[in-house]
Amino acid sequence: TSFNLLLLPGDGIGTEIMAEVKRVIDWFGARGVASFEYEHDLVGGSAYDAHGKAVSEATMAKALAADAVIFGAVGGPKWDGVPYDVRPEAALLRLRKDLALFANLRPAICYPALADASSLKRELVEGLDILIVRELTGGVYFGEPKEIVTLENGQKRAVDTQLYTSPEIERIARVAFDLARARNKRVASAEKRNVMKSGVLWNQIVTRVGKEEYADVALEHVLADNCAMQLVRRPKQYDVIVTDNLFGDILSDVAAMLTGSLGMLPSASLGAPDATTGRRKALYEPVHGSAPDIAGKGIANPIAMIASFGMALRYSFGLVAEADLLDRAIAGVLAKGLRTADIATAGTTPCGTTAMGDAIIAE
Ligand code: NAI
Ligand code: MG
């Protein structure tokens, strides 16, 4: 099989960490696992400098045609003054919207070797492996009306609208249940049905989809605020958590801090399956940004970026054994004590971006 990738390194450390991913892709390609064809393009500030837009129409066409987009990071102080609609970060919003990437997957994995870097005690996080599935294209971030109005008495009123339709909830529920089937067959659905109508509908639809289509998967409902508390109290009780756009934003950041460094966290954003091929549009990216403070120094941690490609192996290419192999290589390198500066412990000498890439490939 042949897969066609669009690599968008972006700005800052984006180019440095993408160089390591390319070597990993080539490693798998050279072993005949699959044929990976890839093309590069500009995105973010570098694209703005070249064509005055954070993502060009030609790049968008390539992204729409690709089997997966592998995205680095965008932004930096150089572009702080550019107009809002062409700022580097606008590229990601455009990609998410045009590729209709409604499902955001954020794993929170705590490697035993890094458990002491967690915000929690080692015993609470060691071996943690949870997956947060966040609805990404609906809810209060997009619902209309969305405005600030001045009332007759001079006061102001701000309105955001939390809006979900049943098909939007059904499709994100199916993504979560499908993922759970390939893991430990447990889903926790987080909403606030006690105070929000959208929470009532969310609860009803997820319950129905679970009962009718995924009777083999255990479903639990949890109020989103309680979920935040439980993530900090006893995170290993969860496996897959499915939730809406706003709660997912918050819960995934809470989960991120359980695992240690920002430089370790991958993510995937998936669209609907194509009617004929069954393949989903997808974009894979690290959770972190372009880290202007360390850009150009060769010290960025490439693991979040490499693990994002691992998610592409797993979720876009169906290469599960290869994805597992890559995860084991990352865990193995960490177990041997290799650390980039962001995850280094006192008394150890940190390695650079390329040395970390070398070590993962060797492992
Ligand atoms: P950031 O994630 O770029 O950096 C936060 C801190 O974490 C910095 O101290 C940085 O050095 C460190 N860090 C991040 N990734 C690292 C890695 N792989 N290895 C080692 N250390 C790492 O967030 P910040 O500073 O708030 O934003 C910088 C720029 O990135 C801004 O222009 C922002 O808009 C943009 N950004 C872009 C995102 C994206 O492309 N998806 C996401 C978040 C921010
Ligand atoms: Mg956030």
Automatic annotation (TrEMBL):
Chief localisation class: cytoplasm
InterPro entries: IsoCit/isopropylmalate_DH_CS, IsoPropMal-DH-like_dom, Isopropylmalate_DH
SUPFAM superfamilies reported in the protein's UniProt record: Isocitrate/Isopropylmalate dehydrogenase-like (SSF53659)
Keyword Transport: no
Domain of life from the UniProt record: Bacteria
Ligand binding (substrate): 96, 106, 134, 225
Cofactor section: Mn(2+); Mg(2+)
Keywords attached to this entry: Amino-acid biosynthesis, Branched-chain amino acid biosynthesis, Cytoplasm, Leucine biosynthesis, Magnesium, Manganese, Metal-binding, NAD, Oxidoreductase
Textual note on the cofactor: Binds 1 Mg(2+) or Mn(2+) ion per subunit.
Gene Ontology terms for molecular function: 3-isopropylmalate dehydrogenase activity
Limits of the Isopropylmalate dehydrogenase-like domain: 4-360
Pathway noted in the entry: Amino-acid biosynthesis; L-leucine biosynthesis; L-leucine from 3-methyl-2-oxobutanoate: step 3/4
Positions of Mg(2+) binding: 225, 249, 253
Binding partners and assembly: Homodimer.
Record's function text: Catalyzes the oxidation of 3-carboxy-2-hydroxy-4-methylpentanoate (3-isopropylmalate) to 3-carboxy-4-methyl-2-oxopentanoate. The product decarboxylates to 4-methyl-2 oxopentanoate.
HAMAP family linked to this entry: LeuB_type1
NCBIfam families membership: leuB (TIGR00169)
Annotated protein name in UniProt: 3-isopropylmalate dehydrogenase
Organism: Kaistia geumhonensis
Lineage of the species this protein comes from: Bacteria, Pseudomonadati, Pseudomonadota, Alphaproteobacteria, Hyphomicrobiales
Originating gene: leuB
